[in-house]
Amino acid sequence: MANPTLKRSLFLSCFPTQFLRNIITPQSSTICRKHLLSTVSDSDKSLSSVSFFTVQYLMNTCGFPLEDALSASKKLQLNENKSHKHQSVLELLRSFHFCDTHITKLLIKCPKILQMKVNNNLKPKLEYLRDNGLEGRLLPDLIVSNPEILTRSFSGFVKPRLEFLKKYLHTNDKVFGAVKRTSGLWRFYLKGIMERNIELLLSEGVTTRSIERWVFWHPRTLMHRVDRIVYAIRTVKELGLDPSSFTCVQAIQVLLSISHSTWNQKAQNFKALGWSEEMIWSAFKRYSLCFALSEEKVRRAMDFYVNTMKLKPEVIAAQPNLLSYAMNTRIRPRYSVIKVLECRKLLKKKFKVFWVFRLTEKDFLEKFVDKHLDQIPNLLEVYRGTITVEKRDQLEQSKLNLLCGDMCSTMK
After folding, report:
1. Measuring CA to CA, how many Å separate 13 from each of 8, 17, 175, 322?
2. Degrees, nearest 5: CA angle 304-309-313
3. Taking 90 as the threshold, does the pLDDT of residue 281 lie above it?
4. Which end of the chain has fewer beta carbons closer than 10 Å to its terminal beta carbon, N or C?
5. Model confidence over 66-93: pLDDT tens digits?
6. What are residue 30's phi and psi, to 5 degrees?
7. Mean pLDDT for the chain?
8. Among candidates 18, 82, 91, 88, which has minimal Cα distance to 54?
9. How many CB atoms are located within 10 Å of the residue 313 CB?
10. Is the CB of residue 12 less than 8 Å from the CB of residue 51?
11. Is residue 339 within 8 Å of residue 368, measured between CB atoms?
């Protein structure tokens, strides 16, 4: 006997999608509905009367697209005689500021919510969350992102996790913010693994303020085995970093966020660019996020600094945060402006070019572009022209020199 699901799929595929949408509507006649169902052989029970009602209800009442309604009907069977119970779920959600879009997204993720009890299950959970600070759109936004809040045991699963997070985040706003921004935070074994690792970090000198920020922004890195936490702490301490400092905490997080094999691969990339082992560790100590950058980004940055600006790898290793700047929207445009100003001898003070790269956009324009527009009217075009060109090839020094020469000659 043929697979019933396959038979249903083959049967439905014979009809255009718009045709199916038209017949699965509240206005569908009983004759049309019976004709569709009778078209399927008696052995194919997958498109039963119950399934038909499920698809119809999900599409017309819950806003499901046809494909999602058909998919949900494989796992969910709604009873037409109990439609008032499903309707009470929708009414409850709307009373807590769930709009139609919220409801559709939520039920597509977790259609079984339609079959849950209102007074003994859903309502107490929603009331608890509302009473603890989730008002207006904040509540439906959180639930849509984390539907398991409604499907798991509230007293045995959800509430203990909320209370645990509040122990370190202190306010409901931060707790719900952490839950919303980190998908799946509910699934973590917080009371066991995370709490043990937090206590270890505190005993090693990490501050409670750092732990608060850590739990909010990077909770996944607190779910590693304790031996990885110990290794990361020992490594940063050997580098001379103080566990109470933000730099040290950031270094620990980077070590925990990448595997040993990824670390070795990134280290080999740096070595291929002329960095020694000592330079690598020195750069990591100064700016650990250089190991969070992609190898391609590092190669592009080093290519420009070394081949265009003629800097030595040792110089970049001493200023590793330069690797994180956007080359096409920050470094190249500013370097172009500085070279033009040098050519015109308009830079009266000596300064390190790294300082220019660190300036905010507003400060850079004020100090190096706006004040020189009288002498070089096209300077802003030089800057903006470079900033809008998204290209991967390096800006050759000869082309840059030619640009400077042309600018100088036209202004004489």
Report:
1. 8, 8, 47, 56
2. 75
3. yes
4. C
5. 888 888 888 888 878 888 888 999 999 9
6. -60, -40
7. 81
8. 82
9. 16
10. no
11. no
Extract the runs of DSSP E, i.e. beta strands, from 242-346. Answer: none
**CA atoms of 55 and 14, how far apart (whole Å):** 18
Under DSSP, the state recorded for 99 is -
Long-range contacts formed by 84-92: CB under 8 A, 24+ apart: 85/115, 85/118, 86/57, 86/61, 86/114, 86/115, 87/61, 88/118, 89/113, 89/114, 89/116, 89/118, 89/122, 90/61, 90/62, 90/114, 92/118, 92/122, 92/123, 92/126
How far apart are the C-alpha atoms of 138 and 141, rounded to whole Å? 5
3-state secondary structure of 55: helix
- Euclidean distance between CA atoms 375 and 368, whole angstroms: 12
Q: Quick one: average pLDDT of 322-346?
A: 91
Q: Whole-prediction pTM value?
A: 0.69
Residue 30 is which amino acid? Answer: T
Query: Count of CB atoms within 10 A of residue 282's CB?
Result: 16
What does the alpha-carbon distance between residue 37 and residue 44 come to, in Å, rounded to a whole number? 10
End-to-end Cα spacing for the chain: 90
How many Å apart are CA 34 and CA 213, to the nearest integer?
60
Task: Report the alpha-carbon distance of residue 150 to residue 122 in Å, rounded.
Answer: 6
Q: Which helix (H) or strand (E) holds 302?
A: helix 295-303
DSSP code string of 340-390:
HHHHTT---S---HHHHHHS-HHHHIIIIIGGGTTT-TTHHHHHHHHHT--
What residues have CB less than 8 Å from 265, skipping those under 6 apart? 295
Task: State the pLDDT confidence band at 200, using cuts at 50, 70 and 90.
Answer: very high
Query: Over the stretch 353-381, which tens digit does the pLDDT of each residue have?
Result: 889 999 999 999 999 999 999 888 888 88
Please report where in the chains the tokens 């100090």 appear, as a residue. Answer: 367
Tokens 């608890």, residue located? 128
Q: Identify which of 279, 7, 237, 188 has the alpha carbon closest to the alpha carbon of residue 269.
A: 279
- 201 burial via Cβ count (<10 Å: 0-12, 13-18, 19+): buried
Residue 50's pLDDT is what?
52
Q: Which one-letter DSSP state was computed for residue 245?
A: S
